[in-house]
From TrEMBL:
Its main location: membrane. The keyword Cytoplasm does not apply. This is Cation transporter. The chain crosses the membrane at residues 21-43, 49-72, 84-108, 142-161, 192-210, 244-264, 285-306, 402-425, 458-479. It comes from Methylomonas rivi. Belongs to the TrkH potassium transport family. It is a multi-pass membrane protein. The lineage of its organism: Bacteria, Pseudomonadati, Pseudomonadota, Gammaproteobacteria, Methylococcales. The keyword Calcium does not apply. It is found in: Cell membrane. Keywords: Cell membrane, Ion transport, Membrane, Transmembrane, Transmembrane helix, Transport. It holds the Pfam family TrkH.
Length: 490
């Protein structure tokens, strides 16, 4: 029997009972999370938006409560975790779109907005934000906040599928059983929630004390710590006159781009834990490099050092952390500035954070592999060179997974970019837009707007979902053997 025959015979499709049970549990959480927007809608008198929120929550409760009583066997398979991850983001965005349609948005724009919110991307087709109610504006930021928490929880659960370097770094306490994915995820969930809520509260207080109004402070803190980037202003941070406030909002994105478990380790073991984390040290270094290069590019056009520095600091940090806040129009920027932003968004933030991109750790692994290749050329043929990064051994399957994810990321970007080129958009602007969606950043060259062709809006929606579940989970979802047993005869 060939290896393909063996894999076919051993392949185990997902169990629909298991999917239904755990998706129903997530649905109940989403229903409860609707309470703050409902209360604010009631306080603001936005009855249409409130009605949509109440109907969605009531529908979820009616459907999900009976389903959560379904008995399921203990344990969960790898493919089931990935399918649940993919479906949870897609279904949540779909349900969230219903109140936005009631709030006056067209169907495709409502779905675009909620996918962008739940995936913490920040691209938006909305204009005239000052005309929307405070409840709707808060709901956009709130979606990004709980979407960011879900991103971290699911990403750590997915890392438990194989106990590689990333899983060892992000574990908050002992991983009792490498196959007990749900048990490990539950053990981390409360710690993650505590860390995330604490960072959010500190961010809200800092922005409020710095002079932002209550709604502006809350929404920008929620969008910042989730690296989402939704603003309540059409021109994002450019509407805030104080440049230091703009930098402060961007700095909140840095807090969200650091792996949340690292805060736990620093609290437990002290600041030396921060010094031992290569990814955490690389984030500010890479950010400063991006800010420096961006400053040189912008200043070449602007010619004003202070103005160029303000733009470079906000835009550079925003791109590197994949937050998406902006204090300048990207469209008139020169090619060097746009390429700098694109490269920064591709790299992204830390693993185990709310940031997108391929992640700094994977970028460091690729750099390490290149270094080892160069070193090996000077060694004898029989020499053994162990692959390590900052003292941690890099396993072959971990390297394979990193390279595969990067390849899929680039392939998705190229295919999506081609769709925009066919429609006649400027190549560099289109590339920035696609990379922004795939890396869940939200910076825009002006292409994303209400008048954008529906087909291209659909492309960006798919890119945002793929980028958020890091591609592999969605590929498992689309794999036929995930759903049915094919060729089971031996």
């Amino acid at each position: 029997m060939s290896s393909s025959d063996v894999s076919r015979a051993l392949a185990q499709p997902v169990r629909y009972r298991v999917l239904a049970r755990y998706l129903a549990s997530i649905g109940l959480v989403v229903a409860v999370l609707r309470l703050p927007p409902i209360l604010l809608s009631w306080a603001c008198g936005d009855w249409h938006f409130m009605a949509g929120q109440v109907l969605v929550s009531a529908g979820l409760l009616l459907i999900c409560l009976p389903v959560t009583r379904i008995w399921v066997p203990e344990g969960i398979r790898d493919n089931e975790v990935m399918v649940i991850t993919s479906l949870s983001f897609a279904l949540t965005a779909l349900l969230e779109a219903l109140p936005f349609v009631g709030g006056g948005l067209a169907g495709i724009d409502a779905l675009f907005e909620t996918v962008s919110g739940v995936t913490t991307t920040g691209l938006s087709t909305l204009t005239g934000l000052q005309h929307y109610s405070a409840a709707l504006l808060f709901s956009r930021a709130w979606m990004q906040w709980y979407g960011g928490l879900g991103v971290v929880a699911f990403s750590i659960a997915l890392l438990f599928l194989d106990r590689g370097m990333a899983a060892r770094r992000l574990a908050m306490g002992d991983i009792t059983d490498s196959r007990d994915i749900l048990g490990n995820a539950r053990g981390h969930a409360l710690k993650l929630l505590y860390i995330y809520a604490t960072l959010t509260a500190i961010s809200i207080a800092a922005l409020w004390l710095a002079g932002l109004g209550p709604l502006s402070a809350v929404t920008h803190a929620l969008s910042g710590i989730s690296t989402g980037g939704f603003s309540i202003y059409d021109n994002s941070l450019a509407a805030i006159d104080n440049p230091w406030l703009q930098v402060l909002v961007s700095a909140i994105g840095l807090l969200g781009a650091v792996a949340l478990p690292l805060y736990y380790h620093v609290f437990k073991r002290g600041i030396r834990e921060l010094a031992a984390d290569s990814e955490a040290l690389a984030l500010p270094v890479v950010s400063l490099c991006v800010v420096g290069v961006l400053f040189l590019c912008i200043n070449a056009d602007v010619g004003n050092v202070w103005s160029s520095l303000k733009q470079a600091m906000v835009m550079g940090i925003s791109a590197q952390t994949t937050t998406g806040f902006a204090n300048a129009d990207i469209a008139p920027m020169n090619a060097g500035a746009k390429l700098t932003l694109i490269t920064s968004m591709v790299i992204g933030g830390s693993m185990g954070s709310t940031a997108g991109g391929i992640k700094i750790l994977r970028f460091l692994i690729v750099l390490r592999l290149i270094q080892l290749f160069i070193v090996r050329t000077a060694l004898p043929a029989h020499a053994v060179l162990e692959r390590r990064l900052c003292g941690s051994k890099l396993e072959a399957d971990e390297i394979e997974r990193v390279l595969m994810l990067i390849m899929i990321f680039m392939g998705t970007v190229l295919l999506s970019w081609f769709a925009f080129l066919v429609m006649g958009y400027d190549p560099l602007d289109a590339l920035l837009e696609v990379v922004s969606a795939c890396s869940t950043t939200g910076l825009s060259s002006g292409i994303t707007r209400t008048a954008l062709e529906p087909a291209l809006k659909a492309v960006l929606i798919i890119d945002m979902l793929l980028g958020r579940v890091e591609f592999l989970a969605m590929l498992v979802f689309l794999y036929p053997r995930t759903w049915i047993k094919i060729g089971s005869k031996t």
